[in-house]
Amino acid sequence: MIGPQSSLVMYEEEYQQIVVLLEKLLQESNSKVIFLVDKNGQLIAASGETANLDTTSLASLTAGNIAATGGLAKLIGEKEFSILFHEGEKDNIHISIVGGRVILVVIFDERSSLGLVRLRVKKTSMELASVFEELAFRSEQESKSADSVSPFAEITDDDIDNLFN
What we know:
This protein has 165 residues and is α+β, with helices and mostly antiparallel strands.
């Protein structure tokens, strides 16, 4: 399992799958904005009304929020709080941890409801977790194949002799 400190290589195929899932969640939950953030605070993907948002700050503050509430969880004997909800006057934020790897952020207003968002997030989280499992497996396989092939494997004795002659 990939922890929060390890880096995960994102391939185009999986990135497109993630974008499709986020766009589907945006429509099905009638939300304004969907973000997917890694636990280090890097924005992975976004969908919806992002033009007027500071996505970099939102991503890093979300990761900080998860880290802070993780500390609170440990203080009371919990592993983590996997779902957070912030209710504002106009907008609400639903934050959930997906597969222990990434943070899914849904911003919605009165056009939707917490119940609908939670229902749709639950389904999408399972699909996203599956994509990230496949991504982790693929990264591991690529890493193993890269480790097994030496960068010097293609160099022959003749190549070395030609270099110094």
